[in-house]
Structure formats: C-alpha cells, structure tokens
Amino acid sequence: MASDRLFRALARPQMVAGVTYPFFVLNGIVGAELFLIFKSLFALVPVFVIHGIGYAAHLRDPHIMSVWLTKLRRIPRVPNRNLWGANVYRP
Length: 91
Prior knowledge:
Radius of gyration: 17 Å
Number of helices: 5
Order of helices and strands: HEEHHHH
Helix content: 55-70%
Number of strands: 2
Mean pLDDT: 83
Low-confidence stretches: none
C-alpha cells in the first residue's frame, strides 16, 4: 500500500538544503567557528563534508536528527561504557 503524499508532506520536518533545520543551523555554527578560528575559506570544506553526510542520512530517514537527540537525552551514561564500548538502557 502506498502512503498518502499529503500525510508524508505534513509529517515531514522543516528541511533546508536536504537536511533538517536544526542540523543546518548546527552545521552553520560549526562552519562559522572554523572560519573564525582558521581565517581561511578552506576551513569551510569540512562543513560541506558534514552536510553531505547529513544529507545522505536524511534521505533515509528525515527524522534522524530528532531520533538521535532523543536517544542522547534518554539513555544515561553508564560507568562501564568505556569497557564495553556502548551504553546500555537502564529504566
């Protein structure tokens, strides 16, 4: 069954240049900081690389940024995280 185009359009987050608005703003802040630190236009190259990675991730799931931020907020760091290389969920 095909999904409804109107529902998909209304449920999709606000996008700018293929990525969500919060990702775009965060990437812009990183770019401004790199430009101010290095005082060179070549410092903006990582911004385009980060945007490309974000674009590829947002093609698969437009809500990837909000899912990732929710995961970071909900799952606390555990003391043995360095030993196992991952976090575990504790209710």
